[in-house]
Amino acid sequence: MKIKLYSVALLFLFIGLFSNCIKEDAEPAKQPTEKRAFVFNINIGEHGVRQATEAGEDLFNENKIEKLWLFANKKNQANLFIGASCEPIEGNRYKVAITAEQEQQLNGDVLDIYLVANHDFSTGVKPETVEALKGYLLENKNLNKVQLQSFVMFGVTQKAVNTAHPESKDLGQISLKRILSKIRFNMPVLDLTGYELEGEPEAKLCNFRTQGYLDKAENAGSLINMEQYSLLNELYGNKKCKRYYSFYSEWSNTNENEAPYIMLAISLKRTGENQAANKYYYRVPVKASEACLKNNVLYDLFVTIETLGGPGPDSPVTVQSSRVSIKEWSTYPDVDSDISSPKYLLVEENNVIMSVVDNYRVGYKSSSLVTPRITKCYYQYVNEHGQVVQDNIPSDNQYYPVLSTSDTHISFTAKIQTNNVPKHFTIELKNSEGLKDNVHVIQYPGQYIVYTFGEKSSWRPDGTLAPGLNNKAMYHIVILIPPKDGEMILGFPKTETRSFYSKSGSYYNKEMDDDHITSDSEETKKTVSPSFELASQLGATIPMYLYIKWRGTDYLRYYGPDNYDIQRSYAMHVCASYTETRIVNGREQTLDDWRLPTEAEIRLIDELQHNGSVKAIMTGKWYWSASGAVKLKQGEGNSSSTSAHTRCVRDVKEYEF
Length: 657
Known about the structure:
This is Major fimbrium tip subunit FimD third Ig-like domain-containing protein. Residues 346-445 form the Major fimbrium tip subunit FimD third Ig-like domain. InterPro entries: Ig-like_FimD_3rd. It is a single chain. The chain is mainly beta and 657 residues long. The protein has 4 domains: 9-178, Immunoglobulin-like (Sandwich), CATH 2.60.40; 181-340, Immunoglobulin-like, CATH 2.60.40; 345-445, Sandwich (Immunoglobulin-like); 449-651, no CATH class. It has 5 helices and 50 strands. It is elongated and about 115 Å long. The chain starts with 8 loop residues before the first strand and ends in a 6-residue tail after the last strand.
């Protein structure tokens, strides 16, 4: 194996300190010469290791030397008598000044010499003993949050030094080792029959440490989990991966909960189906032969996905790496490796949300010229027949994006659409060396409709639709910017709690309380939720009354599961007791927080269904709001202002685009 060494010459300059006063006419000091200099070389990585090695990567600052500090003590002595920063002279040559008193001590004794790279000891407490130096605590709270500017390194050598003998001035070679471990998680291979990937996998590192010691193989601080998932959008060669780092960490073989692992999230859907993809979670342990993450070692993980994962991050499926490669993390690769002259294309964002904005830019880094092109551009929605529609946008359309690039960014401008559904487009970036990456963009207008699908409801527990109906889409309506007519109040409508009673003889028994009863006040009447879902046609009703009370009382009538009569129910009761179930991440999610819409919400839906891509959301003539019946512009059927249809809604207060 041919290894190229990173060499730095370091010179010790001995500065004589005189006890007598310095005269103004004293002869100027002569510049030190090479004959008075101590010289040594460094290389990054374990010197003479027998196992496989892999290069540090300059693109990620893994080999950068920003500063050097040198410490020394006489062999078998606890106290350090040299501790000073090294200054660059020219090229890779450095110097460190010592006093005349220190020079006098260099009379042939063996020195233990310690070199620390990329840490500044000029502030804080500088270690004064070997034990304090080796046990010096380092911390990086931003580890795995932002790219590191450099890596702290540590090296040790021994040398008998006598300033009277020039040959002792060559200290030989010191090998520096990075204090951190490196974990590289490679893009997983999907081998799952009947399912296809949607989007790109995301991952995060769990059970790593942001604290560690310069030269102590002991745990420091507590275990940390990354807060955010991120795309595997870095490259090694021409393959995607993600790099993570940790200080030294060890765990017991009997307690795998302390071992580091990758949490992997993948969105999958059945091949050929239009249903939304579900997200599945996997736990990929970082297998280490000695139950510890060692410093300056690379753990290279490869995994094949052959089964569905868990439905949530609290219940992931554990999958073992199909291959784990553990290597010393050296300076340079073999000279015939592509990494010695890397080809790369790194994009800062692969998934972009443009929310009521018409221009955006994404940074990138590339080893050669980048050319962008749009590979997909379409609107996506569910039509009145319950079918997912992907409506392609031609390149000459006014809403088609326009691209431009610089050496560091790609910019795109797209006029905001007026059809009340999201616009999707994908930009492929390709550089001159053939490397590709994609940016997926979703552009949202000021008000828009997205969707999920209902599976069953309390009205239709078998999941079938009533005759004449064909749409199980639960439309989600989002208002980012209200209309300019000034009538709408944007905010979550006020609700109150009402009770429902059954009757037994002359006694009334409270059967149910519901705190999602929409207020019928004048203010609430004009209020529109900024984010609300509409029950699918699994919750569409026949005409009915707004409310029914027990005669001679103010008690709302209760219809329970034992005496439920759909012909006698009423709108307020329908929404108070309604449930609808959908599938989220492979599990059923039953929604039970439904309410009656406000008058303004019904009128908004009527406007949207006549002025956008999504049609026929509510097709009846009259619908109940909390304050009374509302007539639709082009509604049909036999409903009236006293016997209207009911479609319940629910507020969505925690919504991720």
